[in-house]
Write a structure and sequence with these properties.
Blueprint (H helix, E strand, L loop, with lengths): L2 E4 L11 E5 L8 H13 L3 E3 L15 H9 L1 H8 L2 E5 L15 H9 L2 E5 L3 H12 L3 E3 L3 H6 L3 H16 L4 E5 L9 E12 H7 L13 E7 L3 H13 L8 E8 L12 H14 L5 E3 L13 E3 L2 E7 L2 E6 L2
Parallel strand pairs: 2-3, 2-4, 4-5, 5-6, 8-9, 9-10, 10-11
Antiparallel strand pairs: 1-7, 6-12, 7-14, 8-13, 13-14
Length: about 325
């Protein structure tokens, strides 16, 4: 049985509760869901800005390449105008690959230094890793407006929201995953390692580009994906392995991989066998990288929020693991 324990702080915070919506990827498919997300956040005391973009669209995207890139580049001036704020992605999909070269990374990094906190997941992984690579600044792999705050049932929404507040507003992070870890044979204690990653397809896609984080050896890489059969997941993991990325990490945290369908062809082949194969190959190559399962993150209703590029501590054994922000 899997369970998650978390220390949650709901005390008031001096951080201004201003959310600026941005749509760098796919167009909104459900306007009502996005509006429900806005209503929910307003009920929590947030001021929600830039909602007129909900109707913006071009083909499958939330606007033209130039419109979407300009919106990201405008975040610096928005922080100057409104002060410290949260830039919350409306949804993921696809689109950031087309505009990475149009982003003013130095200016975006300065906006983060001035109080901008970027939040999202899925396709937003590209923006987060590009920011980390170009500037070393952090961002937050977490919920998005439409699905997470507008489309979830209350218990899932409350869980996701509380972790969002804990990480983004209070800047704390401390979770414990209680779940049998088949690939852990002894207790492990990792201190002050950079946690980074996100959507596996995007992480793999950025390898060899200027947007892939540099010099993150001995880090903790977290991964998730959706609609990818285990053989596709294995293929992407092999690229990261052969590129020297997996073996350079102290630990790999695997989140949710779902919405794929196994067939008779698989004959017992599964995500678990994929992880076992990768772990075996890491060991054969003399790498001590730890493989951990069941991180509550990904395209799932109940998700934690992770500060990408921050330093964390990790303690793990065969019964589970704990991750906490380094002091």
């Amino acid at each position: 049985m899997k369970s998650l324990n978390s220390k949650q702080s709901m005390v008031s915070s001096p951080f201004p509760k201003t959310i600026y919506c941005f749509s760098p990827s796919g167009r909104l498919m459900n306007l009502e869901m996005a509006e429900k997300g806005v209503d929910f956040l307003k009920q929590q005391g947030f001021t929600v800005l830039n909602t007129t973009i909900f109707l913006r669209e071009f083909e499958r995207f939330a606007g033209s390449d130039l419109e979407r890139a300009t919106e990201i580049n405008s975040l610096y001036s928005q922080v100057e105008r409104y002060g410290p704020m949260i830039a919350l992605a409306t949804r993921g999909g696809f689109g950031l690959n087309r505009i990475m070269h149009l982003i003013d990374w130095e200016q975006l990094g300065q906006a983060v230094k001035n109080g901008l906190r970027i939040v999202g997941h899925s396709d937003i992984t590209a923006l987060q890793l590009g920011l980390l690579s170009a500037t070393g600044e952090t961002s937050f792999a977490g919920p998005m407006l439409s699905y997470d705050f507008g489309g979830l049932e209350n218990d899932s929404k409350d869980f996701t929201y509380s972790h969002f507040v804990e990480a983004v507003i209070h800047q704390t992070f401390d979770i414990q995953v209680v779940s049998s870890q088949d690939f852990v044979t002894s207790s492990v204690d990792i201190k002050q390692a950079v946690i980074w990653g996100g959507n596996l397809s995007l992480v793999q896609n950025l390898v060899g580009t200027p947007y892939f984080p540099k010099n993150i050896q001995q880090g903790i890489l977290f991964l998730e994906d959706i609609n990818e059969h285990p053989y596709r997941i294995e293929r992407m993991l092999w690229q990261l392995l052969d590129a020297g990325i997996l073996g350079s990490q102290q630990a790999i945290l695997l989140g949710d991989f779902s919405e794929y369908r196994l067939t008779d062809l698989d004959q017992g082949y599964s995500l678990k066998t994929v992880v076992g194969q990768i772990q075996k190959e890491l060991q054969r190559r003399g790498c001590n990288t730890l493989m951990l399962m069941d991180l509550p993150f990904g395209h799932i209703p109940k998700k934690i929020t992770i500060e990408v590029g921050s330093e964390v501590n990790l303690q793990a054994d065969a019964n589970g693991y704990r991750i906490s922000k380094s002091s």
